[in-house]
Each structure stands twice: as C-alpha cells, then as structure tokens.
Amino acid sequence: MSGRSAGAGEEGQIGGVHIKYLYHCPRQLWLYGRGYRPEQRSGLVAFGEVVDDTTFTRRRDVDLGEAKIDWVTAGAVVHETKSSRAPAPAHAAQVRHYCLLLERRGVAVRGGVVHYPLIRRTVDVTWDAEARDEAERSEDEAQAVIAASTAPGRLKRAACRGCSYLDYCWGD
C-alpha cells in the first residue's frame, strides 16, 4: 500500500481527480493538492457535470470518501462516464484507481468500463495484477507530485486549451 501525504485529499488520500490530473498535467495536480480549485468556474466542468447527471440516470454514485465512483454494477464492475469525445489514458487510469480502492476494501473487482455518451462508445478497462501495479504506481507518482516543494513545469500552451487552470499558469 502506498504512503499518504498531507494535501492529497481528505486525510491525505488520493482520489480519482488526483489520478486524472496526474495524467493530464502534473502542475494541475500540484495546484489541486494545495487547494487551488478554479474548476468551479469552468464551463467545460459544468458541461461534464450535466452529461454525468443526465446520462445513466438510474445508477447511483458510490462515495468512498476520497473518491466518488459513478457506479458499480453487480459483479463489481466499475463504471465511469466522461463528457470527452475521445478516450484518454487518464480515464482508464482513473477507473484502475477506483478498482484499487475497492479491492483495498475487500471487493473482488472484475474490471471497469469508461462510457463516452457523446460518441456512444465504451472502453473496457482490465483489472489484473499488471493493472493493479499500474494503479499503485500512479498513486505513488501522484503523492510525489503533491509532496514536491515547487510546481512542475507548464505544458505547452496548446495542451492547456480548455483547462480551468489556464489563467493561473499562463495569465499575465
């Protein structure tokens, strides 16, 4: 099991957002770990919440404290809904992290599915020893980024399009 550091989340635990930000932009993760939360003013984040709220309306969130899973079906399959029009490594990493968190709670997880309702596509996420190792490595990397005394460098500006942290990183 990975170590925990302050600033990672509730009681220092790593949640799904931390893993998503690790894959998207370590600087974003570092800022988020320090409480900087401009997502609340982001139109793209609001759009994602609307997609989540209006898709698969009969499902129930699973709140683990440090993470909120969109839903888990019988047989312990983790489901995550994304408003993106393209699958990304961060999405599968987030599902693997949720699988890891459930497994730590004694659930015999079978895998996961990422749903992309805007493009009517799903991506299966395997859960096996290799996926578990990858989830643990991601958790450790997220802890290291958050614990760093200085922020990681910025991505190239083109990669920041639509990011709610854009003004912080690129503002004049």
TrEMBL record:
Gene3D superfamilies listed in its UniProt record: 3.90.320.10
Every DUF83 domain range: 16-170
Name used for this protein in its record: CRISPR-associated protein Cas4
Phylogenetic placement of the source organism: Bacteria, Bacillati, Actinomycetota, Actinomycetes, Kitasatosporales
